Amino acid sequence: MRTSSTIRTGRTVKRTTRAAATLAVAALTLSLTACGGDDDNGGGDSGDKGGGTKAPASSVTLPKLDGESLEVAAVWTGTEQKNFKQVLTEFEKRTGAKVTFVPAQDPIINFLGSKIAGGSPPDVAMLPQPGAIKQAVDKGWAKPLGAEATKELGENYSQGWQDIGKVGGKQYGVYYKAANKSLIWYNAQVFENAGAAEPKTWDELLDTAQMVYDSGVAPFSVGGADGWTLTDWFENVYLSQAGPEKYDQLAQHQIKWTDPSVKEALTTLAEIWGKKDFVAGGASGALQTEFPASVTQTFTGGDQPKAGMVYEGDFVQVNIGETKAKVGTDAKVFPFPAVGDTAPVVSGGDAAVVFKDSKAAQALATWLASPDAAAIQAKLGGFLSPNKSVDASVYPNEVQKKIADALIAAGDDFRFDMSDQAPQAFGGTPGKGEWKTLQDFLKNPKDVAGAQAKLEADAAAAYGG
């Protein structure tokens, strides 16, 4: 979900107008604020809320695969992995195949390289970056989707979501999972104690943070041990402040990271990252906090948690579910505030890519492109599907239903995560590139020029000059 459509598929980029972007942001904002504070915990009269997202009457047709065995690799862990395995179990029931989940490590493209070198690639892998899909195609590892998977994809996905899974005009990826990465979740009791309200602009966010701080709670929890969370912070600020055209250019390295627009965004980020005691545990504490803990520490500890707010996508709900907090009541959410003229809407996702061109692997890709598969995981929470044939009523709470509706209503009008568009060496590798530089910047947010120089050097090397 982006404020306008920039979909990088190899070297092709699709754009829509800023006017359309504004409509998408407005739809998201209205959807979230319409949630109020109540969580109906699934069900309800959401049958007419799907914006045309009714599931089809017939189920996907799958072949009989008795005796076949498949492996599916993904970096998912914990509840996310557990829930996805339920989707695979249903595939087994329908086909007779046996599916094994293979835990992968970031960067997954390196993990796959080692598996392929050892002669044991998985049948299907879930790739979290368009750049990784292109790398897999360029290396000759990925196989194009077959006719049935492509047909299922065409029936259930907008053209934009189909396009980001293409390389060289061929369909390689099924974006099974999406993410709205423009959300800030907050502890409702902390806000009530502080007398704080949901902010709509960056200046209001700073004021809200000060109110939370004055009430005795650190305003923000930041999972700085995972560099990708920091790239998401940057992308939201940059998209809103610099605008979609600049975002496009920086995503493709058509402008340098030493550009004044990057300086402005980093300087803006430093208004939070560099403010004493605004980040729980300070920079050193944040850099030792992994993403799941950044969420759970915001919603545990009664009315004195370690932080009052945590920024990240809709998938935060999986981690909130590990606490006693209830989404929509104890844990609430607002759109990432506008830094510039328009609030940002940034999306990400994970695509199923075939690595063994077999009947079984293609059948699994077909299954993952179906509303039947997505509905299983949607019901379990912490999951968002770009599949427009999934009825929003299957989502387990009102907040998630509204987020899902907004994603489908946006259609092709979104911007994809910038770091996920980059070569993995720059935008997707722990301890390197953008992840590492932004971790260093969190530690020393006064060194804007140094961060810019390092980002540009790493980007130039990764993009090839």
From TrEMBL:
Positions with biased composition (Gly residues): 43-53
Annotated coiled-coil segments of the chain: none
Annotated keywords: Signal, Transport
InterPro entries per record: Bact_solute-bd_prot1 (IPR050490), SBP (IPR006059)
First and last residue of the signal peptide: 1-36
Location of the region described as Disordered in the Swiss-Prot/TrEMBL record: 41-61
Domain of life of the organism encoding this protein: Bacteria
Signal listed as a keyword: yes
Tagged with keyword Signal: yes
Family: Belongs to the bacterial solute-binding protein 1 family.
Protein's UniProt name: ABC transporter substrate-binding protein
Organism per entry: Streptomyces tendae
